[in-house]
Amino acid sequence: MRLAELAVEAGKDADAYVAIVDEAATAHARWAGNALTSSGLTADTRLTVIAVTSDGRGTAAGVVSHRGAVEEDAVRAVVAAAERAARTATPAADARPLLTGDAVPSSPDWAEPAPTASAGVLARFAGGLAGAFERARAERRLLYGYAEQRQHTTWLASSTGLRLRHVQTASVVDLTAKSEDGVASTWSGAEAADLGEIDPLPLYAELGERLGWGRRRVALPAGRYEVLLSPSCVADLMLRLYRAAGAKDAADARTVFRGPDGGTRIGERLTGAPLTLRSDPREPGLRCAPFVAARGSADVAQVFADTVSVFDNGLPLRPTEWIRDGVLAGLVQTRHSAELTGLPVTPQVGNLVLEGAGEGRPLADLVATTRRGLLVTSLWYVRDVDPRTLLLTGLTRDGVYLVENGEVVGEANNFRFNESPVDLLGRVTEIGRTERALPRERDDSTPRTAMPALRVDGYTMSAVSEAT
């Protein structure tokens, strides 16, 4: 809080300022070969200053960040650098008046300090992990992975009176199990608000069952298969769809969501399946920041840059449906893009939920009703091929299995796949039960997700992969 206030007060040569302070405190542990290898506590601070200037040419913004220990002199240096960047920047097309403290109420906990990381949470988790190690040794298997609990506090202040604070607590367990000879390998992961909510033993039990399936190896050719995608795989694919869902990029005919008449595909049916894709900052179990905190107008995780705007900082976030009952209902909008498209302002939200019309069945029940198909449990190295169709390529890894007559009959070879998440939605034939899911391809900016398993017809396995 002190750094954000100081940065806003230190500004002299620009018309307005926004300061965002991020403090992250993390407790983490790693293990390999059924033994803990490291653990510890880390802390990180980042200050971002946005200086806004206006002249006869228009309004420009200069953005400068500093990571690490931030003292008073460093704050003043960052502010001065942001002012210089603003003076030399070209006018910003997305420039809009900054929000004010009168329009956005201040956070009641604004002045509270950031929570700190505690080794106690690691000690409690290690007790359950020791039980998984013991069972793995008895079954001649090896466990590798890591766990972390991260407390991320964000303060956002502006010279126009914004004073907003949010604390995001998130825990992750990433677990790989291997046979003792290293031939078979499988992966699973879990996400929760608190590391104490994740029990390693059920995760290991699931992986142990898959290693049992891997005792029989099945060589399969490339081709189109009926596929059961785990919630983790669905999360990886839906996040790609979400990151490509910028309204301005669609209106400019640069993405899969471009309309035939130069507009967007909003209102068009994408799938006959009763699927709804939505976000809500107050979603139980997936709570996230209820306001925009944009540290730059170009989000490096995006194919294009028109999905966030520093001028929207502090904008309240609300429940938003992106797909409603199979129909495209919304795209990511800044205030700038909403004015261009004539559509509502619907900024990015830090979570994503995909669900069907009913409760849905667990993945095991979907397997039990499969005549012949592939069960895919994790994806890897997913990359963009064509943004105009959102065609992706990637690999299966650590777990693809052949299902026949309701039973898993063996572990198949890995594949390279080529699929568009948008096209894939049109071939969904069954929707499983929505549950919290950990995408394998993620980073600190990845939205929290809840996804169902999906049965998909004609999934394109374009080549056999030699990856093991």
Give the N-terminus to C-terminus distance in angstroms. Answer: 48 Å
The global form is globular
Strand content: 35-45%
Q: Helix- and strand-based class?
A: alpha+beta
Helix proportion = 10-25%
Question: What's the β-strand tally?
Answer: 22
Low-confidence stretches: 299-305
The total of helices stands at 9
- Rg (CA only): 24 Å
Task: Indicate the mean pLDDT.
Answer: 94
Biggest sheet character: 10 strands, mixed
Brief summary:
This protein has 468 residues and is an alpha+beta fold.
What brief labels describe this structure?
468 residues, globular, ten-stranded mixed β-sheet, six-stranded antiparallel β-sheet, 37% strand, alpha+beta, 22 strands, single chain
Give a verbal description of the structure.
This protein has 468 residues and is an alpha+beta fold. Helix content is 21%, strand content 37%. The chain contains nine helices and 22 strands. The strands form three sheets. Strands 7, 8, 13, 14, 15, 16, 17, 18, 19 and 22 form a ten-stranded mixed sheet that branches. The protein has a six-stranded antiparallel sheet with strand order 3-2-1-4-5-6. Strand 5 and strand 6 form a beta hairpin. The chain starts with a helix and ends with a strand. About 1% of the residues have low confidence.
Reconstruct the topology from this structure:
Elements lengths: L1 H9 L5 E17 L2 E21 L2 E10 L4 H17 L30 H20 L2 E18 L4 E17 L5 E8 L7 H14 L3 E2 L4 E7 L1 H13 L3 H5 L24 E4 L40 E5 L2 E2 L6 H7 L9 E5 L7 H6 L3 E5 L2 E8 L4 E6 L3 E5 L2 E6 L2 E5 L1 H5 L2 E4 L3 E3 L10 E4 L2 E11 L4
Parallel strand pairs: 7-17, 8-13, 12-21
Antiparallel strand pairs: 1-2, 1-4, 2-3, 4-5, 5-6, 8-22, 9-10, 9-12, 10-11, 13-16, 14-15, 15-18, 16-17, 18-22, 19-22, 20-21
Helix pairs in contact: 1-2, 3-4
